[in-house]
Amino acid sequence: MASAVSPAAAAVLRRMKPFATTTPYFCPFYCRALFHSYMPLRKRSRQIKLCSSLSATTPSGETCKSEPLQQENGFKIRDFRKKVRIAGIKGGPDQISDRLGEVVVVTGWVRTFRVQSSVTFIEVNDGSCLSNMQCVMSPDAEGYDQVENGLISTGASVWVQGSIVSSQGSKQKVELKVEKLVLVGKSDSSYPIQKKRVSREFLRTKAHLRPRTNTFGAVSRVRNALAYATHKFFQENGFVWVSSPIITASDCEGAGEQFCVTTLVPSSKETFDSPISTIPVTENGLIDWSQDFFGKPAFLTVSGQLNAETYASAFTDVYTFGPTFRAENSNTSRHLAEFWMIEPELAFADLEDDMACATAYLQYVVKYILDNCNEDMEFFDTWIEKGIISRLRDVAEKSVVQLTYTDAIELLLKANKKFEFPVTWGCDLQSEHERYITEEAFKGCPVIVRDYPKAIKAFYMRQNDDGKTVAAMDMLVPRVGELIGGSQREERLDLLEQRLDELKLNKESYWWYLDLRRYGSVPHAGFGLGFERLVQFATGIDNIRDAIPFPRSPGSADF
User: Fold this and answer.
1) Biggest CA pair distance of the chain
2) Backbone phi, then psi, for 300, in 5-degree steps?
3) From its phi and psi, is residue 6 left (phi > 0), alpha (psi between -120 and 50) or beta?
4) Which of 84, 130, 142, 470 is the most exposed place for a label (fewest CB within 10 A)?
5) How many CB atoms neighbour CB 547 within 10 A?
6) Residues in a beta bridge with 452
7) Looking at residue 171, what is its pLDDT?
């Protein structure tokens, strides 16, 4: 049951009843004015007027019919309605709108504006698409005084009502003939993103504002589409999504490059002023982890794979999709300290099944963005990487080539090219090797290299019968190199324990992982895909720090 309205709020409501009867919906501005009972009425009137303007029309531009707000025991919650966005008004990349003549409301942020003697052009963007809505305003339109007073500027947020008409200009097919303009939030003159082009390095220092630029707006929409397509692919194929933990006591990769999670260092304001002597130690002078929050060392996860394997042992096919962390001190355009991973696990499956799943997944998500992100992909093809659409179409349509690691080494040794990193059997393939294989040797086809040397791969990969290699695979794609890495997992308990001993990993930390081999073990396989690398691959963005909203790297954890 809704709680009763307080006497103070009821008194304000009585005073404001004339506004309530003409405004069928609450909006944030209106509610704030409603319950600020001690705000002078003169100050409140401007907020109320604004909210009447914002709420007096439906998203399609029709005037709302009055309906009661107050019920016997409280207030009615209005129905949620999907906003009409600029992308919907324009009718997609071809801008063939079926809304000509309609009165609509557009909300968004001013990208640019120019004032002429008889007309003002305001470009508004709401993030739904790359192109702006050109709003054409004459001096007799309601709210034009805000233009005259200099309140409308780049970066300001606005509410605009008007009718959709055919555009007289060549850059767009439709535009908004403004009937009413309301300034929602003004923008200070120090707004750093003006019409002039700025570098991506500069925009990384303004990560809170860079989504308002064309490049980062397009990257964000494609990233969103790839995430949606990822869930869609796995859900349509019967996979169960598993939320893997962020805090773990085990190291999936065995590399030791993990961030430690501890409460032994005081938190909050005390952190910067606490002496090292406050950390508890044992009699031997070592850190006393028994006094830590978890009673032992804990870390941010580098992978959700091991946890996904546990659920694959019950649900057959599962996947994780979440943040992972790597404390690798690499300050390059290819590394992030925080990134997202997609990690499916398939039970009753071998390496062949794993490669088939990886191929189907990649081709599915690439086709999805080509079909659903036309305007953004054309932007990337024009301004970021010439020919990216053709490159992606090749990946989506061409057959994937597979060859063994041994064959790949022979191919590289015969290449008429000098590599920075020498090629020998047993070496870990570098990006230059991977890109040569997929871009030059196989002319842009995705390539899967399989059966890698055991010595350069993780402990959980299934050993092949030759004793030297494991059932591992990497999918290589043009421009990126390795995009997907996977393997058949070692399901034999004795060989897995032997491998942990060889690498001097503590078996006690993996007791639960070993249990999976004791209780109904099955052949199973999976792969991992760094989501930001996929975004890079799909957009042509050079630096991985531009493929994630708020990049984390050595020396950088702002925002």
Assistant:
1) 87
2) -75, 140
3) beta
4) 142
5) 27
6) 470
7) 83
3-class DSSP state of 485? strand
Q: Inter-axis angle of helices 388-397 and 351-372, to 10 degrees?
A: 140
pLDDT, one tens digit per residue, over 282-320 is: 999 999 999 999 999 999 999 999 999 999 999 999 999
The mean pLDDT value for 78-93 works out to 87
Angle at 132 (CA atoms; ends 127, 133), nearest 5 degrees: 115
**DSSP string for 174-241:** EEEEEEEEEEEE---TT-S--SS---HHHHHTTTTTGGGSHHHHHHHHHHHHHHHHHHHHHHHTT-EE
- Picking from 208, 183, 61, 210, the residue whose alpha carbon sits closest to that of residue 122 is 183
The distance of Cα 270 from the centroid of its chain, to the nearest Å, equals 33
Q: What is residue 406's three-state secondary structure?
A: helix
Positive or negative, the CA dihedral 346, 352, 356, 358 is: positive
Q: Which amino acid is at 339?
A: F
Report whether pLDDT(46) > 60.
Answer: no
- How large is the average pLDDT for residues 229-256? 89
Q: Please, which residues have CB within 8 angstroms of residue 555's CB and are 6 or more apart in sequence?
A: 331
Q: φ and ψ at 188, to 5 degrees?
A: -65, 155
**H or E element, residue 372:** helix 351-372
**Residue with the two structure tokens 């914002």:** 54
Residue 238 CB coordination number (10 Å): 9
- Class of residue 129 by CB neighbours under 10 A (exposed 0-12, middle 13-18, buried 19+): buried
pTM score > 0.70 for this model?
Answer: yes
Per-residue buried b or exposed e for 248-285, using 16+ beta carbons within 10 Å of the residue's own CB: bbbbbbbeebbeebbeeeeeeeeeeeeeeeeeeeeeee
**Identity of residue 553:** S
Residue 309 near residue 527 (C-beta atoms within 8 A) = no
Structure tokens, 209:
């504002």
Number of H helices, E strands in the chain: 17, 18
The angle that helices 41-55 and 28-35 make with each other, rounded to 10 degrees, is: 150
- Evaluate whether 16 touches 52 at the Cβ level (below 8 Å): no
Positive or negative, the CA dihedral 410, 414, 415, 419 is positive
3-state helix, strand, coil in the chain (%, to 5): 35, 20, 40
